[in-house]
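Please produce the structure of this protein holding adenosine monophosphate.
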Amino acid sequence: MTAPLPKGSTIGILGSGQLGQMLALAAKKLGYKTHIYSPERDTPAGLVADREIVADYLDLKALAAFAKEVDVATYEFENVPADTAAYLSSSTTLYPNANVLAIAQDRWIEKSFLQDIGERTAPCAKVDSQEDLEAALHKIGLPAVLKTRRFGYDGKGQIMLRSERDIEDAFEQLGNVPAILEGFVHFTREISVVAARSPEGHIACFDAAENIHEDHILAVSIAPARIPETLLERAKETAENIMIQLQYVGVIGVEMFETEAGGLVVNEMAPRVHNSGHWTQDACLASQFEQHIRAIANLPLADPARHSDAVMINLIGEAVRPYETATAKSDEFIHLYGKRQARPGRKMGHVNRLYPLGYIARHPERF
Ligand code: AMP
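Below is the modeled complex.
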């Protein structure tokens, strides 16, 4: 057993967006300092952290200085370059570990891993050329989704293939980059589980949330998801299985589909705190951010039970305006990230609306 990270220690965070900001606030609450590493200036995380270094992720001199100043390092986004992760792992403790990043950064490796540990995914095939695509379609059939293996987010880097006509130049349209073809999953809902695992192997899963996207961006999360109790349990077991197999430390977000047949299919995992877990800030004893800091600091994990049902609404672009000067109500909590420009599609903040425990399951039609 390793001792908890002493109070006053410094937690290093790679990345400086709102997730880093909320991690830094949670770290402060638990008595830790934070040091942000970011290639950008004037950032949401920099606004609240004790220190911030502005440097490229592959700047070894800056990384060396950062590693010396932090007692443990973590990240708020999954596209940390492999060399950066390897360097930090050799000079400090990095949670979640670099192997987790390597798996989560590549959709093909990720899907293969999930299948190997017994989880169900969409049928898929590796695609490195237009010929591979045609062979893969022969096996998987239409409709299907062609996705880049790396760097996809918010629906970017993917093409929906519905008919023969969509196939013709699809690989080129995607940019002639390594890709994966996935069979289309006919789903009724998209759900996600946010869960934490400590270095000693303790696990705490928050209840699965149901996620509604607009323009490929998460718009609303409803917690708990309006799915049968057995599936809520199965979703947690999936997150547990993944974390155990990866010897995971920290918070993970696992996205799944509820299929029309009533089963679960894993879509992807995010090795970090997750937008669909923001509801935990106001509906649980400890938020996903606190839970992540607890995990990487080897503190006991908090009880993940909900004290309320919750609906999280992302404030995207100009939708933030009415909330900039509003005050919280007893059942509505406002979180703003301090970004100056409200560009379309930019996440500016979120609102958590609370309901009595069990209300969503009793009145599913109201949401
Ligand atoms: P992803 O980048 O993999 O999270 O995909 C973005 C969104 O595209 C998901 O939230 C789904 O709505 C949709 N999607 C992705 N893959 C599939 C699939 N195999 N079948 C059906 N819908 C999908």
